[in-house]
Structures are given as structure tokens and as C-alpha cells.
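Suppose a colleague, Dr. K., hands you the sequence of a protein chain of 271 amino acids and asks what its three-dimensional shape might be. Before reaching for any lab equipment, you can write down a predicted structure in C-alpha cell form. Begin with the sequence itself:
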Amino acid sequence: MAPLSSTFQALLREATLTKQMLGAGATHIYRANYALHGEYFQAFTGLSVGLERLGKLCVMLDHAIDHRGAFPTGKEMMEISHDLMNLYERSQVIKTGRGLRFRSLQDLSDPSYLSILEVLSAFARGDRYSNIDLLSGRTKSKDPIAAWASKVDQKLYQDRVSPKRKSLIEKKADQSASMDEITFVLHTAEDGTPVISYEDGVRRTLKHKAIAPYRQLLVLQIVRYWVDLLGELEMLARGVMSNDIPFFSEILGPLANDDAYIRSRRTWDKI
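The predicted structure, expressed as C-alpha cells, is then:
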């Protein structure tokens, strides 16, 4: 058997790393809540880095298909930077230009997807340093957890959680109010406000449980969009450089499942 080319090995490593980053991010975004702020940063890091790498793999394959197997230069790739919105716009240009049709989502134009991409893109471009910037006196970056809470979670709770469940959450929170007489609570909510009552903690915990599955589903639907694009480009690239292209569809296959499968599991870091 002929040795694997350096191009094949590099693409294989990149796809494997990307899968692991996205799997970890999808797992942590389900767990993150007001009492586990570190989970948010682990989720944002895995998802933003994973989506950036996945999007750039698509850009590179698209270029190679039209340039006899040659990839974009380092300078060309650096121009994309960490901008996920730029990568999404490029993905639509690629899809439309090649007349591609995906099995699932054809675009990410729904406001729910765009809000997630905006938060993750801002995190990648600098908001990941929000705590350090605050301490050092810089005001350029924003708190990514607060941004997620206002742009994503509030909308999910409003639109996706049934009135019946909302009523039940309020009822259970009200019933827990008596615990405030014998407990001491000190946490910080996603938006920075203090959580100092047992009742408030219960309410926030129940709200998190209600929206966590929707968070994870939307994130993985976004991932699947790019996996579908990469799979289509993989087939085209094989006609140009067959010996250099790994089976991306197999490597990233677990992230391309339908919604029913996505809803059936909560952990994705060991796929």
C-alpha cells in the first residue's frame, strides 16, 4: 500500500480535530448554566474553533477543485480571520455557485441560527478575552455569556418552551421560596446580576433544563449544515485529487445525523 500523502494526513488531522472540538462544544452548551460559567467558555471555545476550522476546510476544498488541487495561500486564509459570519457568507456563495442541494438545511438564515453565529463569531474575534479586557481597562470586547443569554436563551425560552411548562416552572419556583429562610445563596447570573435567593436559583435551573435541548439541537443543526457542504465538496475534490482527500463524510458522520438522533443524546465529546 502506498504511503499516505502529506496533504491527506493534514486534512485527516484537521477533520478529526474539528470533530472533537465540535463534539466537546455541543456537550458543554447543554450543561452550561448560571452556576457553571466555565461550561459556557468551554462550549464557545469548542464551537467557535470547530466551526471556523470546518468552514475553512470548505473554503480550501472549493479553491482546490478549481485550481487543480492547489489550496488558498496563507495570506488568503488569514483574510478570513476568525469571522464566522464571513465564513457563512462564503459558504452560501459556494453552495449557490456550484448548485448544491443539502439533505437538511439549505441555509442558516433563521434568526435563531444567526444569533448563535453572531455570538460565537464575536467570541472568536475577541470576546473570549472579555474578563482580561475588563481587568486591564479595555472596553472593546463584550461578555459572551451575557450576549448568549440575551440573544439566544431568552428567545428560546420565549418561543420554544410551552406555556404549560412555563407555568409549572413558576409554580415550582414559588413553592421553593420558603427555603430562603434557611439557606444562603450567592451566585452570579449570565447577565451579571446576583442570584441571592433559593427561589431565583430554582427558577433559573428549571429554565435551563427547559431550553438546554433546544440550544444543543440548534448548534448541531448549524454544524450539520457545514458538514453537508464539506461532504458535497469532498465528492467534487476526488475528481481532482482523489489520493489526497480523506472520507470527511465518514469522519464527521455522527454530526450529520437527522434531528431525531440529535435529540436522542446529550454528550457528543466521544463520537
